[in-house]
Amino acid sequence: MTAITSTARVITTAPVATKEADALLRDLAFVLKLTRRVKEEMTADRAQSKTPTATTERALVA
Q1: What is the pLDDT of residue 55?
Q2: What is the sign, positive or negative, of the torsion defined by CA atoms of 51, 56, 58, 61?
Q3: Which residues, including other chains, have CB under 8 Å from residue 52's CB and lie 6 or more apart?
Q4: Residue 48: its pLDDT value, please?
Q5: Over the chain (62 residues), what is each successive 10-residue block's mean pLDDT?
Q6: How far apart are CA 20 and CA 4, in angstroms?
Q7: CA distances, 17 to each of 9, 11, 20, 26 (Å)
Q8: Largest separation between any pair of C-alpha atoms in the chain
Q9: Cα distance between residue 21 and residue 15, in whole Å
Q10: In the prediction, which pLDDT does 33 show?
Q11: What gap in Å lies between CA 55 and CA 38, rounded to an integer?
């Protein structure tokens, strides 16, 4: 078996960059949550307006 002669380089991130990234991800999550809420409200309005009304044409005849 061949021995591993190289090691992976590890880079540490600056704490400021991590805080900024966390803030950015938090903001994105908030926007996605609002987008989902608006989409649900819009599709709920469509579902209510497209409900078929009862007509005699659709009545079952025995």
Answers
A1: 63
A2: positive
A3: 58
A4: 74
A5: 78 78 95 95 80 61 57
A6: 37
A7: 19, 13, 5, 14
A8: 85
A9: 10
A10: 96
A11: 33
CA distances from 42 to 10, 33, 36, 45, 49 (A): 48, 14, 10, 5, 11
Single-letter amino acid, residue 33: K
**Complete DSSP assignment for 7-58:** -----PPPHHHHHHHHHHHHHHHHHHHHHHHHHHHHHHHHHHHTPPPP-GGG
Tallying the residues shown for the chain, one arrives at: 62
How far is Cα 39 from Cα 47, in angstroms, rounded to an integer?
A: 12
Check residue 4 and report its DSSP letter. Answer: P
